[in-house]
Amino acid sequence: xxxxxxxxxxxxxxxxxxxxxxxxxxxxxxxxxxxxxxxxxxxxxxxxxxxxxxxxxxxxxxxxxxxxxxxxxxxxxxxxxxxxxxxxxxxxxxxxxxxxxxxxxxxxxxxxxxxxxxxxxxxxxxxxxxxxxxxxxxxxxxxxxxxxxxxxxxxxxxxxxxxxxxxxxxxxxxxxxxxxxxxxxxxxxxxxxxxxxxxxxxxxxxxxxxxxxxxxxxxxxxxxxxxxxxxxxxxxxxxxxxxxxxxxxxxxxxxxxxxxxxxxxxxxxxxxxxxxxxxxxxxxxxxxxxxxxxxxxxxxxxxxxxxxxxxxxxxxxxxxxxxxxxxxxxxxxxxxxxxxxxxxxxxxxxxxxxxxxxxxxxxxxxxxxxxxxxxxxxxxxxxxxxxxxxxxxxxxxxxxxxxxxxxxxxxxxxxxxxxxxxxxxxxxxxxxxxxxxxxxxxxxxxxxxxxxxxxxxxxxxxxxxxxxxxxxxxxxxxxxxxxxxxxxxxxxx
Amino acid sequence: xxxxxxxxxxxxxxxxxxxxxxxxxxxxxxxxxxxxxxxxxxxxxxxxxxxxxxxxxxxxxxxxxxxxxxxxxxxxxxxxxxxxxxxxxxxxxxxxxxxxxxxxxxxxxxxxxxxxxxxxxxxxxxxxxxxxxxxxxxxxxxxxxxxxxxxxxxxxxxxxxxxxxxxxxxxxxxxxxxxxxxxxxxxxxxxxxxxxxxxxxxxxxxxxxxxxxxxxxxxxxxxxxxxxxxxxxxxxxxxxxxxxxxxxxxxxxxxxxxxxxxxxxxxxxxxxxxxxxxxxxxxxxxxxxxxxxxxxxxxxxxxxxxxxxxxxxxxxx
Lengths: 493, 317
Fold this sequence. Notes:
Mean pLDDT of chain A: 91
Largest sheet of chain B: none
Subcellular location (chain B): Cell membrane
Organism (chain B): Devosia yakushimensis
Protein name (chain B): Peptide ABC transporter
Distance between the termini of chain A: 37 Å
Mean pLDDT of chain B: 83
Largest sheet of chain A: 7 strands, mixed
Helix content of chain B: over 70%
Strand content of chain A: 15-25%
Domain ABC transmembrane type-1 (chain B): 95-299
Helix content of chain A: 25-40%
Family (chain B): Belongs to the binding-protein-dependent transport system permease family.
Low-confidence stretches of chain B: none
Structural class of chain B: mainly alpha
Oligomer: heterodimer
Number of helices of chain B: 13
């Protein structure tokens, strides 16, 4: 179905080019996104789809994360950190209002964090904030956070969607009618169809160029392609790589290829034989031909990785050569591990294009060294239940899209079940270290341990592949955090 | 006639109740947790447990079943797990798209299918008949998503006459809303029209050999007059049956077509609700579909009674 469509689409793209794009409203933008968020409250759900709509558009945090993943001031204009790295004092912007007209002050900040830390909290990332001992309102525009121990990523965590500032009066309704302090106010949500945003004129900061933004939910790749070609939408931040060819040669569009935080791994159940055997995991690592996997599964758009760390991160180190592609070495290691004839295992694949395609390629690469894989396709809800919650799996393929999530490996209860006290101690130190040079050193050490231990098969970093109207500018090329920030987007002639 | 209708209605109600119970338990067996789905793979177990409690997922199955059925009798379909909004409102919004879509598709398929079938039967064995039947065969074989994509490519991407998908709410601009439904209803209607044309043709060809046509011709009517006055009415019975069955197929077809045209309809709602394990939403939507299909059957049954009085008498003791 994809191929038939593509050739037809290519032919008609030409016709589309001749008829010319309808003159777009120069201050409105219509964006296609594949997944519709279930709710619009980023503090009560972790779906990436929520942040795509609301992050930095409707809601803002004390800090904000920029296109390069760096921490910038947000609702807090400046801050001071005590010498022991335990007390953060934030100066808040004055004159900020929520979209319902109510004023923003330190009480809202305190309310937000009390809500995150409450016993009945449904914040998906409460654990990132549990090291906060107390939040104290000094005056309406000054607030102090006291930590139980130093947290290296504290300022970054404050900039995440999970910690956006909400108001007591409106927080309960944010799931369906989000009210924040951001440059865009929520107007309407036609379920299954679209979300409408409008520029919030009393915005405290610099007003964005766009006055209106519409998010349209289009799950089907073919439908997204026609929507783009027909001018029904002006762009999408992440398009299926297999259909990018339709737009690459078309002067009406630009394809923005950037990086994401999505490390795609061959998740391995380290609790289970034979995967509890280091030699087996090393053999599997040698059997993986990343180049072939990337070409086949993402049409060449991924970046090979040798450890669970994003290549655009300042602390990244290239470890792809720890176990280079070498089927012979793999066979020898298998024999040494007591599996001269290989073994059989299952590979559970969630319904994501890259996972299903990688699965097939890896199965053939493993077969070449004697490992027979049975591919089992599962729905995402079932994947969460079987693999993630019940640890009932041998191998799986998934992309971990959280920023800086190497700490998962320090949790022995995590689904891949890696239990290494030395590594756990290292991550603890890393989390408590604030000094950047020291953090970098520790992060590199952590990556090296995981690469050597071949905890999982490290495949590639997912690329962000945006397709946009050629006259639209200011979109983020990279995606260091989940979100589609509209602030800088504008039309150019 | 009233007794006949009453008996049919009791059957209709019993079917619904049985369906509700079966749907409830079948969906309970599906693996997957809506709370985990909403909060994502990295959420803490504590947060997931809190959300489960908020969603009322802690209660035993039979308690949830009883409160669900009891609620529906009062018009309360419960709260969606993932969207945190009342299910009834969500369904109502979606019906505003799916119902007009299905009705439009139904009308288009009748308007195209029946005349073609009649024409084909009249020209039996000649070139136009063959051509129509080959086309109809093609129409049955080709899936409606393919039709949908071709229609989009030609009329939306190429000619830009109609939107490639999406939907403007009726309240905002009824004309735009209607325009948005043209291509999807065509995509839905074409395979149905093909089936109708074939059924109509066969029924008419059968009827043409019947005694009453011969009688009519003996009275001096031309073949055309005889078929038009007596044949079509008699051939309508099998067509009516197919039409009733088709309604069910049309509704199932909307799941695919609504995805191709990104329409916010019931089909697409069910599709996402299943993948998100929003079981209460899936259940509510399924019930609505079952009501629609069984109600159609109920109406078809009643129409039988009207079209053919013999059936009505048989149905009454």
